[in-house]
Design brief:
Blueprint: H1 4-19, H2 39-55, H3 60-76, H4 81-86, H5 88-106, E1 109-110, H6 113-119, H7 126-139, H8 149-156, H9 166-181, H10 191-204, H11 211-221, H12 227-240, E2 261-262, H13 274-282
Parallel strand pairs: 1-2
Length: 283
């Protein structure tokens, strides 16, 4: 259990950090008339990221960070972001590169750019990925270490009364985050609002808290997050997502790693880059 003063200090620092990060916009409105990029491209690349993450045993939170970088990049109107909106080739390269950066930021392992190029079946050269990474980092002002929605979930859950379902609450919030990540409309909200909304939705599916406890938690949330925005996210969440059932299983304990290690993948288990899907569709 975190000391309450330390908890408040951490949440305050995280809120200040997210407020210094530019908000996302509906970047699809910036596409040129001849652009062949659409929402299906984002969905296809997100599926690819999840497939790679599952193959390499990465956290789905890394995929969330990937799409955060990507959505912010296309919203920035900087660097090659306009090219990415007008070309599926550049669009795909940008997502792949954001994934590469997210792994370096979020995972205790190393995903080499040489391996990433092989996983893309040689569709992009290593130099192209590294050049795109520089473009993205400059466009984002190197802000790639900000708090995620799940960071807020892990801290806000400490405000709840002790409950045997705490692990299940966090696990269910993660499942909601996977679904939210697939919908670009949620990228315009603060991570704290998205995280708080996922936690509230998870709590609503349990009966381990009485009404007084819930009201107390809601009152405390007002002091830590933009509660009006949380309610806005909640409304969109209820409209667009079918909430999963609460899991009764405890989350699996993941062993920590004392140092970074290299990742290796056999050619048979390497996910196929979405460019293959695109090419076959065009054939």
């Amino acid at each position: 259990m975190i000391d309450i003063h330390e908890l408040i200090s951490r949440i305050t620092a995280m809120r200040e950090q997210e407020d210094r990060t530019e908000r996302c916009q509906n970047y699809f409105a910036y596409r040129s008339i001849s652009s062949d990029v659409d929402m299906s491209c984002r969905k296809a690349m997100l599926d690819w990221c999840f497939q790679v993450a599952d193959t390499l045993k990465f956290s789905h939170e890394t995929v969330g960070s990937t799409m955060s970088y990507f959505d912010r990049y296309l919203s920035s109107r900087r660097g090659r972001s306009q090219e990415a909106l007008d070309s599926r080739n550049v669009f795909q390269l940008a997502v792949i590169t954001c994934f590469y950066t997210a792994v370096k930021t979020c995972e205790p392992v190393e995903l080499g750019v040489d391996l990433l190029a092989k996983m893309c079946r040689g569709f992009y050269a290593e130099a192209e990925i590294l050049a795109m990474e520089r473009d993205i980092l400059f466009a984002l002002d190197w802000r790639v270490s900000g708090p995620t929605p799940m960071d807020f979930v892990r801290h806000l859950i400490e405000l709840l009364p002790s409950c045997e379902s705490s692990c299940a609450l966090s696990e269910n919030a993660e499942k909601l985050m996977d679904q939210i990540t697939s919908d670009v409309q949620f990228s315009s909200f603060k991570p704290s609002s998205v995280g708080a909304s996922c936690l509230v939705s998870s709590i609503a599916q349990t009966n381990c808290f009485d009404l007084d406890d819930l009201e107390s938690f809601r009152d405390r949330l007002v002091d830590f997050v933009d509660f009006a925005e949380v309610m806005e996210v909640q409304k969109k969440l209820d409209m667009s997502i079918c909430l999963p059932k609460m899991s009764s299983n405890k989350t699996k304990e993941v062993p920590t790693m004392s140092r970074r290690r290299s990742v290796s993948v056999s050619s048979t288990s390497s996910p196929v880059c979405v460019s293959i899907i695109r090419n076959s569709a065009a054939a």
